[in-house]
Amino acid sequence: MTSTTTLPGEIVPAQHPNLKLGPGLLQSISGTSDSATIVSTRAGELQHSANRSKWWIESNARRYVPAAQESVIGQISGRAGEGYRVDIGGAHNASLDGLAFEGATKRNRPNLKVNSLVYARVSLAHKDMEPELECFDAQTRKAEGFGELKGGFVVKCSLGMSRRLLDPNHFLLPLLGSRFPLECAVGMNGRIWVDTKSAQNTIIVARCIEAADPDGGGLDEADVNKLLNGIQS
């Protein structure tokens, strides 16, 4: 993963057969050409994945801006017809259809309560429309980990930390998993759901996420290990 500083309005050299744009980037097609131009809509660090298929702008913004295909952790805020209103930390609530779950039918679908937690995928994100969510994988139509999150605890962190935790090479979650049993779902909206079956271990996870967060302590692996040894001694 590489990065470079970019400003609003700058053209970004993002090209890939399966290009996916994240927060801070907009695809624009001019009236005189069919070719698409990728433009930055905010200042920050231009990031892309190792194979250059995913591009986004990482900034110190506190409020989550929904982007299609991103995984988020939301809280049910109310019913809306046959679906739900979901708080995902953005400027507006998202909508979640009652049929947007694996195997859901009109006669057989989840009955979520207000304040229930869901792990979902953003299926629609547009500046002039409210976000839409789905609780299944778009390719397989299977849950693939999406759906209601029962029990556990939500830890809040910076948006940048969420992206770091989704990197399989990041040290924190494997390190914590080597210390005690841990279930985890990472939302790109700055919410991390953890279930450790122990209140003490849940507190440890929260403290370690805060300590490793660039907006917090910014500790590296060695320092987090020292923190863990001190807490668990």
UniProtKB/TrEMBL annotation:
Keywords: Cytoplasm, Exonuclease, Exosome, Hydrolase, Nuclease, Nucleus, RNA-binding, rRNA processing. This is Ribosomal RNA-processing protein 40. GO terms for cellular component: cytoplasmic exosome (RNase complex); nuclear exosome (RNase complex); nucleolus. It comes from the Eukaryota. Signal peptide: none annotated. Belongs to the RRP40 family. GO terms for molecular function: exonuclease activity; RNA binding. Pfam families: KH_6, Rrp40_N, RRP40_S1. The keyword Phosphoprotein does not apply. It comes from Schizopora paradoxa. Its main location: cytoplasm. Gene3D superfamilies: 2.40.50.100, K Homology domain, type 1, Nucleic acid-binding proteins. GO terms for biological process: CUT catabolic process; exonucleolytic trimming to generate mature 3'-end of 5.8S rRNA from tricistronic rRNA transcript (SSU-rRNA, 5.8S rRNA, LSU-rRNA); nuclear polyadenylation-dependent rRNA catabolic process; poly(A)-dependent snoRNA 3'-end processing; regulation of gene expression; TRAMP-dependent tRNA surveillance pathway; U4 snRNA 3'-end processing. It is found in: Cytoplasm; Nucleus, Nucleolus. Residues 19-63 form the Exosome complex exonuclease Rrp40 N-terminal domain. The lineage of its organism: Eukaryota, Fungi, Dikarya, Basidiomycota, Agaricomycotina. Residues 152-200 form the K Homology domain.
